[in-house]
Design a protein that fits this description.
With 638 residues, the chain is an alpha/beta fold. The chain contains 20 helices and 17 strands.
Length: 638
């Protein structure tokens, strides 16, 4: 027998399988199960689940009380065990099993030469189902097994449909992956309902859920069965088959992120509290230990899609819904703040860049919501030493087309005077040269807010907060940071969403040009041709990489080696491992050393699962050391 290995880098490769079968033809069904098991083993699958009663077929009817089929099922289990015991794969199959004076609808877990049985808890006996005619019900509430270093549990079909499925108890007792053997016939609308059940159960139980249902070959005397191989993880569908391709055996493979499941469980303390209250609480630390002596950089979760932009839905329709939802959250947050200060006066600095554009759009939508005059918004463009014609003209056009109060105040004279006051050579374009401009702009905005009786609307986004890319007591400060929860990779899609829904063609054209403008604070002079010379992403790195690092560090708490490996896979066609490694080091250094700026952030609305508010999701001392993270980083081969 092969030596069984544990999950690699925190991933477990599983499969949901629907073999083509023949009702009551056990020899045929067993050979198909064995053949598929060998194929999946070659693909590195560690656990595979087959449908309910797949050894005999679900639609055998009264044949389940025939000794011939019961003995054949017993022999079939033995044959499958013998065939797969030399493989690495563990399989879960379904069969009728006679025990004592009753017959049970069972799931059989085969791990090497070890066999375990789980009885179906709830037997449907309504409409087209009449399982109580043949089977006795069992109890699977305590059936938790270890497979490939992972705690797994099994339930059977109807068990998922009851108000409190066994998987609720089992997950709270430690099961990280739940497998469901099913034989659910197809009806109009039922497929969506099953998808909703599976994804919601995986979310509620903070687990992976693999569902396998019978397919072609079951009797169609009164019912039709289409294969369904569905795998979800923590509320997200991560794999499914095409039910239209039903003439042959089907399967879906997915790499389950066990490390992410573990992290969500200990981060969501309500899960543990519920488990203590309603179950024999499972606290064996062995289930959450690191099973690898070293990180395996040769392993990639090939059966798992790693989105290079985790903050941005890849589907156009879903992305539009996300943008509409974010705008609503931003508007609601800003409107509540305006209500609290009893004013509709807003002051916002407009640079012609993405962030200030988004803040202005939110302000306009908010006042439109309450039918307040847009003239209450004072938009100020403050050209300085690095302002280009492109951003200047875009800022003016944007403000005019939106119908807000427009003010233009050059900062050149004030900053030059400041340089004289502090004795700074204006030919030296250092951090003093840059930050003096940022602070002068903030002073202007604050003073205009005093003049108008309004508030300064902050424009900095989540990505800038993560990197500390803001001038302390400059653009770092405002009365309300409306973009504080929005990552840079999502900002442009919000602006694009607004552009796509406006009837103003000039505004639409301007917004699209703003989207195409290189990201820059424009604090150093333009090049000889008047173009932006100071490009943010050349200085701190690509925002799409930093947003990727930020998401997986904060959302799942992954270590640098895990984040690096995932980034290499996600950006394989765009960045070299060396480039990814370089900017990952920059990310950790900036994230830790710039915490002091986040510790005193203005209020701002949280819009997603990752947030850096010191009053909300992220509490970290400003003097925390990043040495441990850099040590891990230095050990990464790149």
């Amino acid at each position: 027998m092969k030596i069984l290995f544990s999950m690699t880098n925190g991933y477990l490769r599983i499969a949901s399988v629907s073999p083509r079968l023949r009702v009551a033809d056990i020899d045929y069904n067993v050979e198909e199960i064995i053949s598929l098991s060998k194929t999946l083993d070659e693909r590195g699958v560690e656990i595979a689940v087959f449908p309910e009663l797949c050894i005999t077929g679900y639609t055998c009817g009264d044949l389940f009380h025939n000794e011939t089929i019961l003995n054949g099922a017993r022999n079939g289990i033995d044959r499958i065990t013998e065939a797969v015991k030399e493989l690495n794969i563990h399989v879960i199959v379904g069969a009728p099993v006679k025990r004592g004076d009753a017959i049970y609808n069972c799931a059989i877990l085969i791990r090497g030469d070890k066999i375990d049985y789980v009885d179906k808890s709830y037997l449907p006996n309504y409409n087209e189902f009449y399982e109580q005619r043949w089977f006795a019900s069992g109890d699977s509430n305590d059936a938790i097994f270890e497979s490939h270093g992972t705690k797994i549990a099994i339930e059977i079909c109807e068990d998922l449909w009851v108000p409190i499925p066994p998987s609720c108890q089992l997950s709270m007792q430690g099961a990280q992956v739940v497998f469901n053997l099913s034989a659910s016939d197809d009806l109009i609308g039922k497929n969506k309902y099953i998808h909703d059940l599976i994804t919601q159960q995986s979310a509620r139980c903070i687990c992976a859920y693999a569902y396998s249902s019978s397919g072609f070959g079951e009797s169609t005397t009164d019912l039709v069965f289409l294969p369904k191989n569905i795998i979800a993880e923590c509320g997200r569908l991560i794999g499914e088959n095409n039910p239209d391709e039903y003439l042959t055996s089907s399967y879906t493979i997915a790499d389950i992120d066990i490390e992410a499941i573990n992290r969500d469980r200990y981060h969501n303390t309500s899960f543990t509290e519920c488990a203590k209250r309603f179950t024999h609480y499972y606290s064996d630390t062995e289930a959450h230990k690191n099973t690898n002596s070293a990180f395996d950089f040769s392993f990639f979760p090939k059966y798992r899609d790693i989105n290079p932009m985790p903050f941005v839905p890849s589907c156009d329709t879903e992305r539009a819904k996300r943008c509409a939802e974010i705008f609503t959250i931003q508007e609601c947050g800003l409107l509540r703040r305006l209500t609290a200060v009893n004013s509709t006066k807003i002051v916002v600095g407009i640079s012609g860049g993405l962030d200030s554009t988004l803040a202005l759009l939110v302000a306009v939508r908010t006042l439109n919501k309450i039918k307040a005059p847009l003239a209450d918004i004072t938009a100020v463009t403050m050209p300085g030493f690095g302002t280009t014609d492109r951003t200047y003209e875009n800022a003016l056009t944007l403000m005019r087309q939106l119908g807000v109060t427009v003010r233009e105040i050059s900062i050149a004279d004030a900053v030059n005077q400041h340089f004289k006051d502090i004795g700074h050579n204006k030919a030296v374009h250092d951090v003093t040269y840059e930050n003096s401009q940022a602070r002068e702009r903030t002073q202007i905005l604050m003073d205009i807010a005093n003049q108008t009786g309004g508030i300064v609307l902050g424009t900095g986004d989540l990505s800038e907060l993560a990197l500390g890319w803001a001038t302390y007591n400059g653009d770092h400060m405002s009365m309300y940071g409306v973009n504080a929860g929005v990552p840079k990779t999502l900002v442009k899609y919000l602006v694009q969403f607004y552009a796509d829904t406006t009837a103003d063609n000039l505004l639409k054209t301007t917004l699209y040009d703003i989207i195409d403008t290189p990201i820059s604070p424009e604090l150093t002079p333009a090049d000889s041709e008047g173009n932006i010379k100071q490009k943010t992403e050349e200085l701190v790195g690509p925002y799409e990489l930093h947003d990727f690092y930020l998401y997986y560090m904060l959302r799942y708490g992954f270590a640098p080696d895990r984040v690096f490996q995932m980034a290499v896979q996600a950006f394989t066609d765009k960045y070299t491992p060396e480039t990814i490694y370089h900017w990952l080091g920059i990310f950790y250094r900036r994230f830790f050393t710039q915490q002091f700026k986040r510790s005193c952030l203005p209020d701002g609305p949280k819009v997603g699962s990752v947030c850096l508010s010191p009053r909300g999701d992220w509490r970290m001392p400003s003097d925390a050391s990043y040495n441990l993270w850099m040590t891990v980083l230095q050990n990464i081969p790149h």
